[in-house]
Design brief:
mainly alpha
Length: 300
């Protein structure tokens, strides 16, 4: 028998042992690491951001809310500007002194804050309603990462939407005031850019407020009701409250305080624009922290 034949036989005898060793190693590795654990462990913040962006972008309500926000900003500003302009000629001198064309042009912010807050709430309550929150938390067990991704993606949508809403509302309101012969402000006037840009920040904070409310409440219906009462009903009913409570609500209630950022006339009984926006921001931060603690401890 030749030397080459002997070596070939030895090689064939060693191959099964090598395959057996590979199967044994693979089996031990599978026992240590169940299927999917490695993929989940490697799912970082970028993966969560990408997944949340796809989910929120493809959600039908997102497009509806963005369009409704833009239309509300421009439509209400135009209607309010025309109405206020027609009334300006018959106003007494005292009312003309407090006439605020900047606030009139940005009147649509009142309704836009509600629509963006609803978008923030739907970013989480829609998952609870469809029970897809279970698969989300299975793929990304770190709940702080999930909530951070939702907040970042929501901000990426709400911030440009808010800026476009305030800018479009300002132009529409200015045109309506001009056509009716009432005073108006231009972009170069003092306080105008502060109101336009600050109004966009205010609307972004409203969206994050809705996200925090959605995490805490989890029900879409209850979240919508709560946001409606918080942003519209309480500020509207504040003057009817008892004296000290009415003054406190008008000055420190977060949506009312934050809304001062879009005004031009300075009421001595209310907060200035940036301190008022800071009150709104502080409230949102507190609610987001409470939402994070609740989200981390509560079952899906």
């Amino acid at each position: 028998m030749s030397q080459g034949t002997v070596e070939n036989r030895r090689a064939r005898l060693k191959r099964p042992a090598k395959r057996s060793l590979q199967r044994s190693t693979r089996t031990r590795r599978d026992r240590r690491e169940p299927p999917g654990v490695g993929a989940t462990a490697r799912a970082g913040l970028l993966h969560s951001l990408r997944a949340e962006w796809i989910r929120l972008r493809t959600m039908r309500a997102t497009l509806y809310v963005v369009v409704a926000t833009l239309v509300a900003g421009a439509g209400l500003a135009s209607l309010n500007g025309s109405s206020a302009g027609d009334e300006y000629a018959a106003m007494p001198a005292a009312d003309r002194f407090t006439f605020d064309p900047l606030a009139i042009s940005l009147k649509g912010v009142i309704l836009a804050q509600l629509t963006l807050a609803l978008l923030g709430g739907l970013a989480i309550t829609s998952e609870y309603g469809s029970r897809t929150i279970v698969s989300t938390l299975t793929a990304v067990p770190r709940r702080g990462r999930v909530l951070t991704a939702k907040a970042v993606v929501l901000t990426a949508i709400a911030l440009p939407t808010g800026m476009l809403t305030t800018f479009g509302g300002f132009l529409s309101g200015r045109a309506a005031l001009d056509s009716s012969g009432a005073p108006y402000v231009a972009l170069g006037d003092p306080g105008t850019w502060r109101a336009v840009l600050g109004g966009g920040l205010f609307l972004t904070l409203a969206a994050l407020l809705g996200l925090a409310a959605g995490v805490l409440i989890r029900s879409t219906t209850a979240t919508v009701t709560t946001l409606f009462a918080t942003t519209l009903i309480v500020p509207a009913l504040a003057p009817a409250l008892p004296g000290p409570l009415a003054s406190w609500a008008a000055k420190f209630w977060p949506p009312s305080a934050g809304g001062q950022i879009v005004t031009g006339y300075r009421d001595p009984g209310l907060l200035d624009p940036w301190p008022g926006l800071a009150v709104m921001a502080g409230c949102v931060v507190v609610l987001l922290v409470a939402a994070f603690l609740t989200f981390r401890r509560r079952d899906a």
